Amino acid sequence: MSAHRAPTGGRIDRSKTIAFTVDGKAYAGHPGDTLASALLANGVTLMGRSFKYHRPRGLLGAGDEEPNALFTVLGPGAVREPNIQATRIEIFDGLQVESQNRFPSLSFDVGAINRLAGKLFSAGFYYKTFFGPEWIKGTRVWHVFEWFIRRAAGLGSASAARDPARYERMNAFCDVLVVGAGKAGLAAARDAAEAGKRVILCDSEPPSPAATAEFAAHANVECLPRTTVWGHYDDMTFAAVERVADHLADPPAHLPRHRHWVIRTKEIVVATGAVERPLVFPGNDAPGVMLASAALRYAAEFAVRPGARIVVFANNDTAYAAAAGLAALGSTIAAIVDVRPNPPEAARALAARAGAELIVASAVVSTAGGKALSGVAIAEIGPDGAPGANRRTLSCDCLAMSGGWTPQIQLAAQQGAKPRWDERLHAFHAPDLPSGWSMAGSAAGDFDLDEGLSAYPAPVFEIKAKGKAFVDFQHDVTADDVRLAHCEGYVNVEHMKRYTTLGMATDQGRTANLAGLAIMAEARGLTPPEVGTTRSRPPLVPVSLGAITAERKDDLKPWRLTPMHDWHLENGATMYNAGLWSRPMIYGAPGETIEQAYVREAAAVRSGVGIVDVSTLGKIAVQGPDAPEFLDRVYTNLFSTLAVGKARYGLMLREDGIAYDDGTTWRLGDNDFLMTTTTANAGKVMQQLEYYLDCVWPDLRVILTSVTDEWAGAAVGGPKARDVLAACVSGAKVDDAHLPFMGIVKGEIAGAPVLICRLSFSGELAYEVYSGAGHAAHVWEALMAAGKPFAITPYGLEALGTLRIEKGHVTGAEIDGRTTARDLGLDWMLSKKKSFVGSAMMDREGLFHPDRLRLVGLVSLDDRAINGGSHVVDSLDGEKATQSLGHVTAACFSPALGRYIALALVKNGRERLGQRAFITDPLRGRAGPVEIVHPVFVDPEGKRMHG
Amino acid sequence: MREYSAFALLKNALTGNTGWKEAWRKPELKASYDVIIVGGGGHGLSTAYYLAKEHGVRNIAVVEKGWIGSGNIGRNTTMIRSNYLHPQNQHFYEHSLTLWENLSQELNFNVMFSQRGVMNLAVGPAQLDDFARRGNAMRLAGIDAELLSREQVAKVIPGMDVSASARFPIYGGLMQWRGGTARHDAVAWGYARAADRLGVDIIENAEVTGFLKDGDTITGVVTKRGEIRAKKTAVVVAGSTGQVMKLAGIDRLPIESHVLQAFVTEAVKPFIHTVAAFGGGHLYFTQSDKGSLVFGGDIDGYNTWAQRGNLPVVEDVMSEFVALFPGLARVRLLRSWGGLMDMSMDGSPIIAKGPLPGMYLNTGWCYGGFKAVPASGWTFAWTIAKDEPHAFNRHFTLDRFRRGLIIDEKGQGSTPRLH
Amino acid sequence: MRITCPHCGRRDVAEFTYQGDANRLRPDPASTDQAAWNAYVYDRVNTRGPHREFWQHSGGCRAHLAVERDTATHAILSVSYARDSDTARAGRRP
Amino acid sequence: MVEIASPLGTAFKPGRHGKPDGAPGVIVCERKPATIVQVAAFSGRETAVREALVKAAGLKLNGKPGAGVVNGSRAGFGVAPGRWLIADDKEGLAGSFAKAIAHEDGAVTRLTHGRSVFRIEGPRAEWVLAKLFAVDFSPEAFPVGDAVSTTHHDVFAAIQRVGENAFDLYVFRSFARSFFETLVRAGEEVGCEVKA
Ligand SMILES: Cc1cc2nc3c(=O)[nH]c(=O)nc-3n(C[C@H](O)[C@H](O)[C@H](O)COP(=O)(O)OP(=O)(O)OC[C@H]3O[C@@H](n4cnc5c(N)ncnc54)[C@H](O)[C@@H]3O)c2cc1C
Ligand SMILES: NC(=O)c1ccc[n+]([C@@H]2O[C@H](COP(=O)([O-])OP(=O)(O)OC[C@H]3O[C@@H](n4cnc5c(N)ncnc54)[C@H](O)[C@@H]3O)[C@@H](O)[C@H]2O)c1
Ligand SMILES: Cc1cc2nc3c(=O)[nH]c(=O)nc-3n(C[C@H](O)[C@H](O)[C@H](O)COP(=O)(O)O)c2cc1C
Ligand SMILES: [Zn+2]
Fold it and tell me: Among A561, A884, A937, which Cα is nearest to A763's?
């Protein structure tokens, strides 16, 4: 046992010893210890450095309120977890932590030099300097200073090493959520459990034996230890984080490190307790000065004496109980210094029980000692907190202070309602609570204290002695900073916060906010409720990004795979992400470049036959007697006239007249259509159609079903395409008479039913072969086998793109949400016989303007590639002088033409056909002459696909 | 000597920091002004400043519902850039950027505009081409832009996953080095102080609850602190536009109010020195001079007037961030908040005279109006002073929708949740 | 936020897609009244308070719902199938 | 007849995953119904369609939203207003529905290939599913036979409780492989047995 650890008592297990290191130095503790208690037991008082002045700091608190003792937890591997409160780290064998914000070491920190310039670094000082004189233009001066500021910024450092841990989510539903398993929370949980309700009981602390024992038998109570409820969202949805494995030396791989709980409840009981407030006086941040309740917790829960000789400094009775408790646990209480002239009898009795000298109407006005406390100076004070002349010093190694209690109401205030002021507690209560909410225990201001004692403090927040008196410990905000904000007009509490950064540190001002606003209130001559509090926001305690990411860590989005996916991989495809889909880009032969591969693939289609996986196209079953009418309304062209067994190309507009999507729709029966959409827009189009059916035309008898995944497709195209099909299709004839252009037949390939439509994206004689997705790989292989004699070539997206560019077919790059049918040369598809979605607005002046960008083709005249995203210009006159006429939407090497070509959207492009222009791509340093041509490069009469 | 300087700091430090003046006065309102500006956000304050400075109009009241900077100027992720695609936007935002570049000196207030670069990360060759289209358009308009390779991107942001095995591998990025961030609150305070010194009355806690009218003509406003009259009343209340305009009898506008959430982590030693946006989802991020990672994503996607968001977007944003920075799963979220955005139907702003006589309207900033603060105030001041738009804002009219002259950067049409 | 789908019960907002202001009536398809179309496509009431709007239960039964929701508090005041709403009814054949 | 191929491919890894000791918390397998078919009614014709469906399939579906039944090798449940999904271990149901449902009442859509079905069963099935879906899986809220339509982020799923501790998950086939991996991973905490 160390000198600081009592031989008995506390929640620790003395039978086992745990070894851990801080900055490489070895320490020992026991199961049940936090890093804070274990270090205290080892006599360590210096646990951190403050943000701005690098002042030495020790423990202030024992729980979530701790602002000072922040460490970086190391490992596994190179992983680092910065800014973790020592009070929240349960030690385990092999734990390694590192102190922060110091150089070269915690005990000798050169940054502490900032203290010397303390007055210069007053609130908001950086707004007033660092930007240079007016005659130095630009931001250069600031950049120089900022470089140094950023070097000094930050607390701990993060690591780039991939966190190997897993994180998970849990969706929970209950009748009553109880937050906090203190006395009040336990009682609330008990009541709810006995009423037969489904209860979830969360507490930030490790499992308490009391809760565990009590609720072991209740199947309707779920106890979640190490779980902090951090967010309140609409409709009684709460977010909580469970630290599942942080306390384990060797967590098994199947356990998540953190679990993100999303709890929907009917009722909530907030029993989160109250936090004690520090008093604001010079030197109140010295290591060894801590909250009285924290001092007591260390002694009672961990059997660690926070000091051998303790001075208690208070403005209320509760600290007397703490003093008595500390004395009973083996500390000497040198004195109780109370700002009040007349503490009540019950308190005096406790002082006597503690063996403490009682010094009333007095206050601590300074502290002595560097990295550990050696004594305090006290003086008599007046009712306004101003100290008188009468001074004495007391030697002590711990100062336990209590400035009153602040109920923990943040959860109830997160939705933005205004908290209510309690004149006696000098603190805020939860706002008026909506139904389903209740506050319990000290969170409700209900302190269950011994007879004659009260938690109501004297309204003294600050002792106005000379020296740096801290309000916000982590951010080094002093009482003078608050007054400076006042002097400069930053008097609104939110201005004060932002100007001084009070309450913006990792503890969000849990212990600091009230004193800060009280000091501002005094400066303004207002009461604290008139000044008001700053807004609470989630999360209530810092939460790992990993926890909230949950199962999406390492798995951001699911993959969508076509049935032929494995075949593509086995056959050398380079895959490409298209939204969530994975699609073959090329099937490169060894040594081939991408361009060589797609040129080979595309050329094979033009000269022989190719096959491409088109399973990703959106497919929507449109069924019902009103399906033809519905299609007439959503497409620009007519579908009611389409014969059964035929397909038609369709174009959709948005309501504002802009082109939306295109695709073919197949009429499979009188009431039965199969619509296809582009891969990218499948979801959006489906949603749009559903919207019209539900919200605009509810009496149309139409059923829409996504069948994208039901049907897989292979497009077989090229002069030999028909031969391939003829070789493998049974049950249907595929010759021109039976299967004309845009015709559909049903048949079988290798025993699997297929639906074949003769349509062409490549401009060749081509067929889309659809089969049930579960048969599709089988059908694909059969097509490959049948195509073998014709040297069938699988092709990927690059070749697909090349073929469509050669044909001047538009897709997403051209239908980009800004172009009209006219811009794209699709005006022929705008029916004049009917109105359709978009018809009313497509003729607005802005959509008709001659300067609009219109689709054209480009041919490179210098035989070099044209980059996508290049612009088209009239003349090449350096980079700046030229005006953009438009831009390239898609480009490729055309095997059919033997030239580099592109599609482009060019101002008044249709008037420029045959003209010369230039493409320019200053970003990639490419410019060159082009000819503007009609966008259909290959077979404009369509002989090949009709062939 | 100018009020704020290193010398002044030193002098005041020696005298106990008691010599500083109020950054802006707390005046009582007068019965009438030449111009009333409704809304003490970035745009309102900069409008007042440029009216006073450029156009000599000094008798101005800025009336603000709460405290200045309580709106979006005080809660945005502070990204500044002019990397727009459409010329109508390019010229305007580039003008803004040039004003930003000398703003601290001009206002004698360090707004900490830090030109650390703004980058759009492309997740595929098609997206890279799309960014190239934008970058080339910028270059042709005389704006700086660079296309970075994957390797260059990795150098700019160490620790980011640019591997080919990522779910959405990064192919490169469009970088505007002159873009960056500024200290949001300082912008509000700096403009307020500079306007105040030119005589502008900044009146806080004066919510406008009605308009004074003579027939159709707006002749002033009713505020919680009294009535004020003016020949010209400018409404520049960002997310609150719908509500304020209803007070003037304008019931419907091409504007929806949506919430955008933003996030900061605990401070860690700075390692991200640039601003970046991830094209594989809806994420943009930077690291502040304090060390906090500051980031945001998509809007929540529904009409709202509550300045707070919901959990699904929080989860989405964290997921994308952790996907890009797998080492940051152990860094912790410190605070999240929301701001109300005035989402216009094409994603571009409105800075125009009207819609009623005596009234001027500035709105439609969506999630991108912080960077516009200088140019918005500058052009709006011009429009108010001269009763006609400047070339920079002449396209930002209210009637462009009816006329089909939409400026749609995203190509998503009139669905704000997709912008 | 949670919305009670008449078919699926109370579900998280993540399962729904906002489909916009339900106060707008689509003009008669044959109408060429540009002001009416402009109002339909671009103008919004953008109410602070009870607001009629469409949501699709896109991550559930996919029905569109007519929801009345307080945009200041996010309280859901009523939910019904969109096809039964006034707006949709106006689109039915006479 | 050509067999319907599993979408799982390399993602199918039979055996024990995760927690190595004790009985598995969940057992996961792919079910391969020979028929999955959707029956949908036009607005106002829901009852007529449901009655025709009950007759043709022999499944006693009541009109309650989300209600369903499991009857040996055949299961059916409501997925949306006026929409039901029926799965059968035999082929042929779609044809009989097409005959039974009048064109004026509704439509029949085959989805046998488009949906993949996974069964998860075991004492921790509710716990594991609750990780992925924001649905109350407690037996009071979700009795045997009932079904829900929901999503795990981008993956749409219809889930039917087919037993006290057993659920069938219908997901879009293109997502099946990814989703299956997610499901097994979610099961690892409690020990997950993947069976053929
Ligand atoms: C989370 C978030 C992130 C953002 N990120 C960026 C970014 O990275 N880059 C970028 O360029 N932009 C960003 N923006 C957008 C940018 O913040 C806004 O577009 C811009 O601040 C809006 O202009 P403003 O500053 O004038 O608005 P505000 O600051 O909102 O000003 C409007 C003012 O009007 C006041 N007001 C309202 N009603 C009344 C009334 N009745 N009477 C009197 N006063 C009234 C309000 O109180 C408010 O102060 C972001 C916005 C948000 C919310
Ligand atoms: N020293 C004193 O004199 C003093 C002061 C205050 C309270 N008390 C005593 O404490 C008792 C009050 O009990 P109580 O239950 O109100 O408070 P409590 O402090 O005993 O319990 C609150 C519990 O809530 C947990 N908690 C807080 N925020 C949480 C969150 N967001 N998520 C999960 N858990 C969270 C805490 O870990 C803690 O265990 C009374 O008996 C009172 O006398 C004594
Ligand atoms: C760029 C930026 C950085 C911020 N950094 C912090 C921070 O370090 N600590 C903090 O508590 N809040 C920080 N905030 C959030 C503010 O505290 C506050 O939440 C935000 O300005 C919105 O105001 P509200 O929450 O009072 O509504 C930051 C905000 C912004 C815009
Ligand atoms: Zn539903």
Answer: A937
Q: Chain C: nearest CA to A844, how far in angstroms?
A: 9
Q: How many Cβ pairs within 8 Å bridge chains A and C?
A: 77
Q: Report how far residue A298's alpha carbon sits from residue A300's, in angstroms, rounded to the nearest whole number.
A: 6
Pocket of ligand 2, beta carbon within 6 A = A 179-185, 202-205, 228-229, 271-274, 293, 318, 321-322, 405, 408, 441-443, 447-449, 540
> What is the B301 CA–ligand 4 centroid distance (Å)?
19
Extents of the domains making up chain C: 2-91
What is the CATH number that goes with domain C2-91? 3.30.2270.10
- The mean predicted confidence, pLDDT, of chain D is 96
Q: How many CA atoms lie within 13 A of C48 on its CB side?
A: 15
Report the C-alpha gap between A463 and A360 in whole angstroms.
14
Q: Nearest to residue B76, comparing CAs of B407, B371, B405, B397?
A: B371
Can you give the pLDDT at residue C94?
Answer: 45
Instruction: Compute φ and ψ for B105, nearest 5 degrees.
Output: -65, -45
- Quick: pLDDT tens for D48-67: 999 999 999 999 999 999 99
Range of the domain at B40: 29-77+184-254+346-418
C61/D148 Cα distance (integer angstroms): 9
CATH of the domain at B362: 3.50.50.60
Question: Does residue A938 contact residue B146 with C-beta atoms inside 8 Å?
Answer: no
CA gap B394, B396 in Å, rounded: 6
What is the distance between the alpha carbons of residues A547 and A553, in angstroms, rounded to a whole number?
Answer: 9
- Whether the CB-CB separation of A638 and A833 falls below 8 Å is answered with yes
Residue D8 inside a domain? The answer is: no
Q: How many domains does chain B have?
A: 2
Cα angle A204, A210, A214; round to 5? 110
Q: Side-chain half-sphere of A464: how many Cα atoms within 13 Å?
A: 12
Residues 6+ apart with CB under 8 A from A623: A671, A672, A673, A702, A703, A704, A705, D40, D107, D109
d(CA A574, CA A851): 41
Q: Whose CA is nearest to atom 10 of ligand 3?
A: A504
Residue A663: Cβ-neighbour burial (10 angstroms; 0-12, 13-18, 19+)? buried
Question: Of the candidates D110, D126, D146, which is a domain's last residue?
Answer: D110
**Atom of ligand 2 lying closest to residue A541 CA:** 31
Same domain, B174 and B271: yes
Closest ligand 2 atom to residue A444 Cα is 16
CATH of the domain at D178: 3.30.1360.120
Task: Kindly state whether residues D82 and D121 are assigned to the same domain.
Answer: no
- In eight-state DSSP terms, residue A200 is E
Asked if A708's CB is within 8 angstroms of D107's CB, the reply is: no
Question: A563 at the D interface (CB within 8 A)?
Answer: yes
Q: What is the mean pLDDT of chain A?
A: 95
Helix, strand, coil percentages (3-state) for chain A, rounded to 5, are 25, 30, 45
Residues B195 and B308 in one domain: no
Q: Atom of ligand 2 at shortest distance to CA of A208?
A: 39
CATH of the domain at D76: 3.30.70.1520
Nearest-by-CA chain A residue for B309: A233
Contact flag C7-D150 (C-beta cutoff 8 Å): no
Please indicate, yes or no, if residue B138 is contained in any of the structural domains: yes
Rounded Cα–Cα distance for residues D66 and D82 (Å): 10
Ligand nearest to the CA of B260: 1
Q: Are both B165 and B191 inside the same structural domain? A: no
Rounded to an integer, what distance in angstroms lies between the CA atom of residue C14 and that of residue C12?
A: 5
Determine whether the interchain pair D109/A625 forms a contact, defined as Cβ–Cβ distance below 8 Å: no
Q: Is the ipTM of this complex over 0.85?
A: yes
- The pLDDT of residue A1 is 47
Is 0.90 surpassed by the pTM of this model?
A: yes
Q: Are C71 and B305 an interchain contact pair (Cβ–Cβ within 8 Å)?
A: yes
Which residue do the tokens 């795979």 mark?
Answer: A561
